[in-house]
Amino acid sequence: MRIKWTEEKANRAAEIVEQCAIARDALPSLRREFGDEVTLDSVVSMLNRRKLSAPGERVNTHDVEEAERDTLPAPAEVVASKRQVVAAGVFFGDLHAGIQDDRAVECAIRAGEEFLRPFNEEQRFTAQVGDLLDSEDLTSHPRRRNKWATMDEEIEIGRGFLGDVTRRLGAKTNYLIGGNHDSARWEKYVSAHLRTISSIRRLGDALLFESLMGLEELGWSYTRYNKCINIGRCVVSHDFGSGGATAISRCLYGGYRAGSAFGHTHRPGVMYAGMCGETFRVSLNPGWLGRLEAIDYFNERSAREQWAHAIVTSYLDADGMLHAQVVPIVEGECIVNGRVISA
Ligand SMILES: [Fe+2]
Ligand SMILES: [Fe+2]
Q1: Which pLDDT value is given to residue 80?
Q2: What's the 80 CA to ligand 1 centre distance in angstroms?
Q3: Is the separation of the CB atoms in 41 and 49 below 8 Å?
Q4: 100-123 burial, b if ≥16 CB within 10 A, otherwise e?
Q5: Among 55, 89, 201, 285, which residue has the fewest nearby CB atoms (within 10 Å)?
Q6: Which chain residues have CB less than 5 Å from ligand 1, an ion?
Q7: Interval 290-299: pLDDT, tens
Q8: What is the pTM of this model?
Q9: How far is the CA of 95 from the centre of ligand 2 (A)?
């Protein structure tokens, strides 16, 4: 049964919603007061008809115009806007633990805290899109001149970052995506030694990257390098085979019609294409959080001009689309919700 919003009920409901950061947080109180038939859609729609805002929910002007023309009671079922926010998330880029920029990392986490503040634990998500570790020690390359962390130290720094994100951003869902520098290098290293050292083979599951990092205990789900997950209709992986400055546009027009999110290029950006509905898509990259001085495998001048510290903030709508924005981090500072965040 659908609730009938009398003037008195509507005013009281508006009062309750006003006290909450987002409208859906008011739902338990509204149901206690008016019964279980209260739905978020009916509340948002009722507020829209009265030209009142529903925090965190899109004000559907079409609904308002329709309601003004229609003097009959509203239809039994109100279709919620597809643009209704169902989740909010922060994308973190390549950390390369061991050569991370501590100030940029701290700023990124503070920015994430600020962005997610209006949302509850269930609605929040975070994603680290790979190259959490640098893993130079696992390669056959000579140790880099400027590199200062051992593999043990990298693991500790990487775990520290993941723990900080879960503790401070308080998201129920945290996705760790394997990168070519961490997950792939680890698997290659282990398989090379498995062949020759039987005592290593006996360790079994303990050799998995997720075990090495203790991801379950830290509250992160894990996806191996070159595998994908979906966040809404957006496909997420460390890379899609494209590198360099044009990777974002190539991913946008390269077949992932609903959208793609990836790391690897260290070049932050968000691009959109498509008019609406099925054709609307996004391509995003949250950049990186490392120190340029520690890099010696890429031209320093090019890296300085093209790579950038950043995060990507995003809203997931009821249609599965990500509405994403790049937040650049400049010398340990960024701006979120109009506030300067400093580290
Ligand atoms: Fe990387
Ligand atoms: Fe990478």
Answers
A1: 62
A2: 40
A3: no
A4: bbebbbbbbbbbbbbbbebbbeeb
A5: 201
A6: 94, 131
A7: 998 888 778 8
A8: 0.76
A9: 10
